[in-house]
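Dear H.,

Thanks for agreeing to be a second pair of eyes. The structure we're designing against is below in token form, covering all 371 positions.
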């Protein structure tokens, strides 16, 4: 195929993607152009090889330390991984390696990647029933005593309802037992610190003593291209549990699952962090939670929907006549896209950084029209 045909084919394919302003289900967004530039400039680098690509490794260390200190109050060590799923797998693997048990416990609201991790790692996953509430710390303690797990995974901003588990109390429990506490903040990690400080929510997210690892996605609220996630550990030595021997590499080892890790992601996060920093992300978080609240208020005015109270930037709704599947399909025919919240049999709306009031108003118009 000649190059101009090839490009017109690509453009053709591209036109089949819905505009992001109409995507209200997926937790993806439009990356910041500076971040994209950084990604592209460093596209040929491998962050699994900080010996050849020294600057990438150096920047990875600097940015993890800086972001962790600024957002979560502790200058820590970590890696740029592909996102929440990989971080959950690595955290569980590390917990097993450190505490020598293949039992994992987690509230039943954890992301499905925890099930995936346990499948891959041949673990027993014991889920704590929560009825979609923040998990009760005393119940967690009972489970820890009873099951003696290596790893406890909790969530700061659950996928379906945006619930925040009581991170501080859980971290206190973790200091009392030989257990790896992983805080999955893939979605909430760039919202919670700001919303807490501005009084929107009562649960903060800090790197408390007792937390072994914490993950946050920069391809969600961080405006960095996919894949961009941070995996942060409280004790530098705790990274060692997920290094694997790789004798042909200059350092003799690689971290995590991949053999080649995209160095572009490191530079992409570095660029957005330099560009937005604390105040930039604070503004995004506050703007988007306000937009979420505006949408929730407008939805409550339409009497054909049951509307759940929003948490962070998530709202769940159910059409009073259509099944969730019929509703989502009807919307898709009109060019708008939602996800499911199976645990409450509802459709999930998530406001992401690219959404504007105009997108929300267009969406409301379509929702009003559905009979
Ligand atoms: C709480 C939580 N954890 C993990 C993930 C998985 O993240 P990723 O898609 O970056 O692997 C998600 C995705 O939405 C999530 O909401």
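And this is the sequence the design step returned. I haven't edited it by hand at all.
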């Amino acid at each position: 195929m000649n190059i101009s045909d090839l490009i017109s084919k690509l453009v053709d394919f591209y036109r089949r993607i819905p505009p992001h302003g109409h995507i209200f289900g997926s937790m993806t967004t439009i990356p910041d152009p500076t971040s994209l530039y950084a990604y592209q400039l460093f596209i040929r680098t491998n962050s699994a090889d900080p010996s050849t690509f020294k600057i990438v490794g150096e920047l990875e260390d600097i940015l993890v330390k800086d972001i962790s200190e600024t957002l979560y109050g502790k200058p820590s060590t970590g890696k740029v991984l592909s996102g929440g799923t990989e971080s959950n797998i690595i955290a569980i693997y590390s917990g097993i390696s450190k505490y020598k048990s293949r039992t994992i416990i987690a509230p039943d609201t954890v992301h499905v990647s925890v099930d995936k991790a346990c499948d891959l790692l041949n673990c027993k996953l014991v889920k704590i029933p929560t009825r979609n509430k923040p998990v009760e710390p005393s119940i967690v303690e009972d489970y820890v005593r009873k099951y003696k797990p290596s790893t406890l995974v909790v969530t700061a901003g659950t996928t379906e309802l945006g619930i925040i588990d009581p991170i501080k109390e859980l971290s206190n429990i973790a200091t009392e037992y030989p257990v790896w506490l992983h805080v999955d903040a893939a979605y909430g990690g760039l919202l919670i610190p700001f919303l807490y400080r501005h009084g929107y929510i009562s649960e903060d997210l800090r790197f408390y003593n007792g937390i072994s690892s914490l993950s946050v996605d920069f391809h969600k609220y961080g405006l960095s291209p996919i894949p961009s996630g941070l995996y942060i550990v409280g004790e530098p030595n705790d990274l060692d549990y997920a290094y694997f021997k790789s004798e042909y590499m200059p350092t003799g080892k690689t971290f995590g699952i991949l053999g080649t890790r995209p160095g572009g992601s490191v530079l992409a996060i570095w660029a957005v962090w330099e560009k937005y920093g604390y105040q930039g992300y604070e503004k995004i978080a506050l703007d988007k939670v306000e937009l979420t609240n505006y949408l929730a208020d407008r939805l409550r005015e339409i009497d054909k929907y049951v509307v759940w109270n929003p948490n962070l930037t998530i709202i769940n709704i159910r059409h009073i006549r259509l099944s969730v599947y019929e509703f989502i399909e009807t919307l898709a025919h009109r060019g708008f896209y939602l996800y499911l919240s199976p645990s409450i049999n509802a459709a999930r709306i998530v406001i992401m950084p690219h959404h504007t009031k105009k997108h929300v108003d267009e969406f409301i118009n379509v929702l009003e029209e559905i009979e």
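Two observations from my side: Residues 27, 83-85, 111, 113, 155, 158-159, 184, 186-187, 217, 229 surround pyridoxal-5'-phosphate (CB under 6 Å). The two ends are 47 Å apart (CA to CA).

Warmly,
E.
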